[in-house]
Design goal:
Layout: E1 5-9, H1 12-15, H2 19-35, H3 37-41, H4 44-50, H5 55-58, H6 65-68, H7 82-101, E2 104-109, H8 116-128, E3 133-137, H9 151-160, H10 168-176, H11 179-194, H12 205-211, H13 216-234, H14 237-250, H15 257-273, H16 277-290, H17 294-311, H18 319-333, H19 339-359, H20 363-380, H21 387-404, H22 407-420, H23 425-437, H24 441-453, H25 459-471, H26 475-488, H27 493-505, H28 509-522, H29 527-539, H30 543-556, H31 561-573, H32 577-588, H33 594-606, H34 610-621, H35 628-642
Length: 643
């Protein structure tokens, strides 16, 4: 076995989310930091996300308003896809570590019991492993016999395993043990782990031991609540749901109503973000039935509005019902006696109403709500209060201004949020989009580059930068970014289509063909990829295959211009002039284009319809990008025929 072999335990009972990834980082980061500290610092966000205990060694990650907000001011949570960014960044770090060491072997154990974060990490690491890295799964371990052990020793061994032991004798002894002995041993084990002061132990074994100890409804519920809060802040939503539901089972809602409410709403947040909306709504109905408390009913009404306007599948969204719920929440907020709470909650709920108005097609009303909300916060609250929510309001305003075409106002809002929250990458991505629309491509590129330097990698950023590079004429850079976006997320369809098309346009037919094949493997009914395959067949001189592909593409998307235009060319070459005209007419329904008009005019001429051809040539000459010399020549021929 290689001396560079690292054994990694992935059982989530050991350290909760990212048990495997965290154990791996704790094993390899210290040596790597000693050899190449810049490599470690370039992945500090990902490393500390899974192994926060390393902060004293490598230093803290840059904070954002989201990560630094106090619990009472936390109004924004991470996208569920953030864990994929972490996993991709860690995979790149592990590859760099492997190359630094000249090769490595990683052996992962207990992955069947791993948290979804670790299972996602292992899938990405395995897919992206460099040639010098071997990734293996160890079979379930069987503990060797250690001679005769007494009952109490077996019980203690099971508890010391943090409930992970597969030893049948240990499990049997534990289940048969006196309940008071079990509880005492759980308490002692929790105390022992707590003294180590390691955050990740508070996400797995410590809550487990507390909930099975002598005070499950007290210390157990409190430990679960603390773990739930941490995991929610980090975006580990499967773990949030698991522990929140365990907490709900322990807490008596009559005895500890506030804790029951808090842990239940953490469960509903996780359920909504994991697309389990019906379950979230059922919990809110339960909570509203338990208490006649204004805070419960205000927050529940807001949450139900978000379920109906944002989280339900598109075909199930009901923005009118959402508006009814959010208005209830606003009405309650305006009756709060405490002036600061009244202001914050009123503005917060009207921000939700602004989202509903956007979905109802009323962007001007949404903008009014957002402007008034930010002004009210500035007027009625101290400037250092609720900075996160102020940034959310201003960011939302930027998005609405952008939608309404007021790019200067949108840019001003984004400049403001970046000034107060300079480490939040999404703001730079949004500002880059506005800069590009304003024709400031160099500024847009600078924003994309900066965003890439402050966040773990994710496909959307590189896809957007690739499109910018393409518009700037840097085809090689565009191809590299499209390819990297697909390395991060192979199912990213738009990046696949754009990469295949760009490779085709640059003459890399083999590369384009590989992208089409890979893309159709993930998306077998993608009309755009079928059309590109048709273009490749046409380039190879296989007209029948090309025609079949264009037909297949148009069965999926009858209005696909690329397929219509190119099928028209094949039909023209086959002498099917009317069919070519029909395809070009259908293509022009998507918008006038001088090349399509030229081609239809050419087909009309072949049919002897010189008047119709002349009309197409004349209209094409009026459009930007027209080949004026060629069109004028064709128009002159038409006029000669008509004369």
């Amino acid at each position: 076995m290689s001396q560079n072999t690292v054994h990694v335990d992935g059982h989530r009972a050991r350290r909760g989310p990212y048990t495997a990834a965290g154990n791996l980082m704790r094993a390899i980061v210290p040596e790597t930091f000693e050899r190449d500290p810049r490599l470690v610092r370039s992945h500090v966000i990902e490393i500390l996300s899974v192994a926060p205990e390393l902060v004293d060694l490598i230093g803290a990650a840059p904070g954002t308003l989201t990560s630094l907000a106090v619990p009472k001011e936390r109004t924004r949570f991470y996208n569920p896809l953030r864990t994929r960014r972490i996993a991709n960044g860690l995979a790149e770090f592990v590859n760099d570590y492997t190359n630094l060491r000249g090769g490595a072997e990683l052996r992962f154990g207990a992955m069947a019991e791993a948290d979804p974060t670790d299972q996602e990490f292992l899938e990405i690491l395995t897919r992206r492993a460099c040639p010098a890295l071997t990734v293996m799964l160890d079979p379930p371990s069987q503990r060797p016999a250690t001679g005769s052990r007494g009952h109490d020793e077996l019980v203690r061994a099971y508890i010391d395993s943090d409930g992970t032991s597969c030893d049948a004798n240990e499990l049997a002894a534990y289940e048969q043990a006196d309940p008071e002995l079990r509880a005492a041993l759980h308490d002692a084990r929790a105390d022992e782990l707590d003294r180590r002061g390691e955050q990740t132990l508070r996400l797995g074994p410590i809550p487990y031991h507390r909930e099975h100890g002598s005070d499950p409804a007290g210390a157990g519920a409190d430990a679960l609540m603390a773990a739930v809060n941490y995991c929610l802040d980090m975006g580990y939503y499967h773990a949030v749901l698991d522990m929140a539901m365990r907490g709900r089972a322990l807490i008596d809602p009559e005895a500890r109503p506030e804790l029951y409410w808090q842990i239940s709403t953490k469960a509903t947040t996780a359920l909504a973000l994991l697309d389990r909306v019906d379950e979230a709504e059922a919990i809110y109905v339960e909570l509203r039935g338990l208490r006649a408390d204004w805070k419960v009913h205000m927050a529940s009404a807001y949450a139900l509005a978000m379920l109906y306007t944002r989280f339900r599948p598109r075909e199930q969204r009901d923005h009118v019902t959402a508006k009814a719920h959010i208005n209830t929440s606003i009405a309650i907020a305006e009756m709060i006696e405490d002036p600061e709470l009244r202001t914050f909650n009123s503005v917060f709920n009207r921000n939700g109403l602004a989202l509903v108005e956007m979905h109802l097609g009323n962007p001007e009303e949404a903008l009014r709500l957002l402007v008034e909300g930010a002004d009210r916060l500035d007027r009625e609250l101290a400037p250092d209060r609720h900075l996160l929510h102020r940034s959310v309001l201003r960011h939302n305003r930027a998005q609405v201004y952008n939608m309404l075409g007021d790019l200067d106002a949108s840019l001003a809002e984004l400049d403001w949020v970046i000034k107060i929250d300079p480490n939040y990458a999404e703001y730079y991505i949004d500002r880059a989009g506005v800069q590009h629309r304003r024709g400031q491509d160099e500024a847009a590129l600078a924003d994309y580059n900066h965003a890439a330097s402050i966040t773990p990698p994710f496909a959307e950023l590189y896809y957007n930068r690739a499109n910018l590079y393409f518009s700037m004429g840097d085809t090689a850079a565009a191809i590299a970014d499209f390819a990297y976006a697909l390395e991060l997320e192979p199912t990213q369809l738009e990046a696949r289509i754009n990469l295949a098309t760009t490779l085709l346009e640059t003459g890399d037919l083999d590369g384009a063909a590989r992208q089409v094949t890979d893309g159709l493997g993930h998306h077998p009914d993608c009309a755009d990829l079928l059309a590109v395959r048709g273009l490749l067949a046409a380039e190879a001189g296989d007209a029948d295959r090309a025609l079949a592909d264009f037909d297949a593409a148009l069965r999926v998307d009858p209005a696909l211009v690329t397929a219509l235009a190119n099928r028209a060319l094949l039909r023209y070459e086959n002498g099917e002039h009317q069919a070519a005209v029909d395809d070009l007419t259908a293509a022009l329904a998507a918008g006038e284009d001088p090349d399509l008009l030229y081609n239809r005019g050419f087909a009309y001429q072949a049919m002897g319809e010189d008047g119709l051809a002349a009309a197409d040539y004349t209209r094409a000459l009026e459009l930007p990008g027209a080949d004026r010399e060629e069109l004028s020549a064709r128009l002159a021929l038409c006029r000669q025929e008509v004369a």
